[in-house]
Write a structure and sequence with these properties.
The structure holds 2 protein chains of 2 kinds. By secondary structure, chain A is α+β, with helices and mostly antiparallel strands. Chain A has 10 helices and 10 strands. Chain A has a 4-stranded mixed β-sheet. Chain B is an alpha/beta fold. Helix content of chain B is 28%, strand content 27%. The chains are: A alpha+beta, B alpha/beta. Bound molecules: flavin-adenine dinucleotide.
């Protein structure tokens, strides 16, 4: 058993870290305030090959696995969570299912563009009435001649503003149990009848766009069906196993940033004639943060490794996300507390970390849903 | 064009270094390493030269056998192959012995131009580059901050105490690189994957004994603690009477 990173993974981590520290840290506050990621960042990520991280070489990707993705995401999110989720969703919720379930034709059509970053991808499952209960979705795809017509409104779609391709989950059969009548479609965002709707104003993660998607008679052919008709929901869930590892890694990155900021401040800030790091109350916070982070990091990497081995990892991915996201919020809370009033103002980036951490317990399955998934595995 | 980039593995600039009990070296356990800052610029210049004029970039390093991560990174950033002259004492090898070992390999490989950093960030000697050029009998241009290179020679702007100087030189030459010559690229993921397949050869060099010995090594004295003053008058008073700089 070896807990160390291989030479290759170390190089990948160092590259991601250099980039994150050099290019993302100086921009993260601006991304948050302007609710927009600097377009130059997308180009730099393309240059680095980050959009094709998990895509096979034959389609122009780096053909790396979930472990490499988790390590990269940790570094990116340590600097900027808005950029982090964009990379995570593109790789784990769009490229991965295409690689796994796409036909040769679909792969040839989409993967080279996705891998090069020429277009970005988004994943659209949620609706106003179906969040945790995702299978209750109502938007429809109706058979029409030799194709399909898509209608309905989807909600909270990450990267909607920039995406060129959306993988959208639509009801294709209302006669069967709800999870058995859903189909995944590959829809170009320049399709007639497709519109990006309202952009959400959010607590955190503000640099990342989260929008409504409106489908009004959008026509697609059979070649747009990902996997089989009516068999989309298992794809949505299996895809989320990978996505949750990505969000787990995001949470670790944010938590790590909180720990580092806390250690720095504990060594600098003086009260009662000494730096606050001398107080046991502060020391214990740091020790708790560090221990929980290290444990969650190992869990995230284990889940990623399992997925790379092609083994089932539903429970492990849920546990990884559960542990990592609750840890990130714990760290963000303690970090803000350690910074006192300065942490509550925008003098430091700590208040952003606090706001950004919050989302990791909500999307790709809220914390209680992770508990539910884990318990289901245990009681099976 | 045959291009060689000489790089050195050094402790990272933010590493917390401490001196060994005998006062002659650094404690190396757990020390993080990187390619010396100016050598990164040398490598980038080598790769840009290849991209502009064609040819091949060989990364050459005198260093430990375990240092392959840093050398792989050079391959990921565009080097075509690498030769490591293994020397576990590389950090304390003196400039002359280092230069001689590098020269033997450069002569064996053959090259039109050798790029190296103007100085290594660990020992700050700035001697290996000129020594390599001297032993090779080649032109040497140091601390280059702007460069135009063609087949037979080139023009370089170099940083001197008096300001920028423009020099013309012919090839073969050793060029030591200064800050601002270029902006070193990041190693992309594809580069990292490709680097796995590039040749990295380890050789045992003939090493001459050091002629320069470290007599003793001591950390710089700790800086005196700063003091916060409450207003400008107190500051002026302190500058005038305590620091005596006004
Ligand atoms: C910034 C952001 C980005 C997003 N990006 C995407 C995206 O790209 N694509 C996409 O499809 N969706 C996306 N979402 C949607 C996200 O996945 C959902 O918000 C999430 O699944 C939760 O659904 P909900 O908001 O409807 O909450 P609800 O399901 O209404 O849950 C409300 C509360 O009830 C709890 N709860 C619900 N059911 C149970 C239960 N059975 N047992 C115990 N507790 C329960 C939940 O844990 C939660 O605390 C995004 C959301 C946000 C905020």
């Amino acid at each position: 058993m070896d807990f160390g990173l291989t030479e290759e993974l170390t190089l990948i981590r160092d590259t991601a870290r250099d980039f994150a520290e050099g290019e993302l840290m100086p921009r993260a506050t601006r991304h948050d305030r302007e609710a927009k990621i600097d377009p130059a960042v997308f180009d730099m990520l393309a240059e680095l090959g980050m959009w094709g991280l998990t895509v096979p070489e034959e389609y122009g990707g780096a053909e790396l696995g979930n472990l490499a993705l988790a390590i990269v995401l940790e570094e990116i999110n340590r600097a900027c969570a808005a950029t982090g989720v964009t990379v995570s969703v593109h790789n784990s919720l769009v490229c991965s299912p295409l690689v796994k379930y796409g036909t040769d034709e679909q792969k040839k059509r989409w993967l080279p563009k996705l891998a090069s970053g020429e277009i970005l991808g988004c994943y659209s499952l949620s609706e106003a009435g179906s969040g945790s209960d995702a299978a209750a979705l109502k938007a429809t795809a109706t058979r029409d001649g030799d194709g399909w017509v898509l209608d309905g409104t989807k909600l909270w779609v990450t990267t909607a503003e920039q995406a060129g391709l959306v993988i959208v989950y639509m009801r294709t059969n209302a006669e069967v149990p709800k999870a058995k009548g859903i189909t995944a479609f590959l829809v170009p965002t320049d399709s007639p009848g497709f519109k990006v709707g309202k952009k959400e104003i959010k607590t955190g993660l503000r640099g990342s766009s989260t929008c409504e998607l409106i489908f009004e008679g959008v026509r697609v052919g059979d070649d747009a069906v990902l996997g089989e008709v009516d068999r989309g929901f298992p794809i949505a869930l299996e895809t989320l196993d990978g996505g949750r590892i990505g969000i787990g890694a995001q949470a670790i990155g944010i938590g790590q940033a909180c720990l580092e900021a806390s250690v720095r401040y504990a060594k600098e800030r003086e009260q009662f004639g000494k730096t606050i790091g001398h107080f046991q109350a502060i020391q214990w916070k740091l020790a708790d943060m560090s221990s929980r982070l290290e444990a969650a990091r190992l869990k995230v990497r284990e889940a990623a490794w399992l997925r790379d081995q092609g083994q089932p990892c539903g429970r492990q991915a849920a546990e990884a996300k559960f542990l990592a996201s609750t840890t990130a919020n714990f760290c963000a809370d303690e970090c803000l507390q350690i910074h006192g009033g300065a942490g509550y103002t925008d003098d430091f980036h700590v208040e952003r970390l606090f706001r950004d951490a919050r989302i990791t317990e909500i999307y790709e399955g809220a914390t209680d849903i992770q508990r539910l998934v884990i318990a289901r595995h245990l009681l099976r | 064009m045959q291009i060689i980039a000489c790089v050195k593995r050094v402790p990272t600039t933010d590493a917390a270094v401490s001196v060994t009990p005998d006062g002659k070296g650094l404690v190396t356990d757990g020390l993080p390493y990187m390619i010396s800052f100016y050598d990164e610029i040398a490598l980038e210049q080598a790769v840009q030269t290849k991209e502009a004029l064609g040819g091949e970039v060989t990364v050459l390093s005198l260093g430990p056998a375990s240092g392959s991560k840093e050398i792989r990174e050079c391959l990921a950033k565009g080097g075509d192959k690498a030769v490591v002259l293994t020397d576990d004492e590389w950090m304390t090898r003196d400039a002359r012995a280092t230069a001689k070992a590098l020269v033997a390999e450069i002569e064996a490989q053959g090259a039109d131009v050798v790029f190296m950093g103007k100085v290594a960030t660990d020992r700050d000697n700035a001697s290996v580059g000129p020594m390599v050029a001297t032993y090779l009998g080649w032109a040497c241009v140091t601390d280059v901050v702007a460069l135009e290179l063609g087949e037979g020679g080139g023009t370089a702007k170099v940083e001197t105490e008096a300001g920028l100087e423009t020099l013309e030189f012919s090839l073969p030459a050793v060029i030591t690189t200064g800050k601002g010559l270029n902006e070193p690229r990041y190693a992309g993921l594809k580069g990292i994957m490709a680097a796995k397949k590039k040749p990295l050869e380890e050789k045992t060099p003939e090493l001459e004994a050091n002629q320069a010995m470290v007599a003793s090594l001591a950390p710089p004295p700790p800086r005196k603690e700063g003091r916060l003053v409450s207003d400008v008058n107190e500051l002026i008073d302190a500058l005038r009477n305590e620091a005596q700089v006004l």
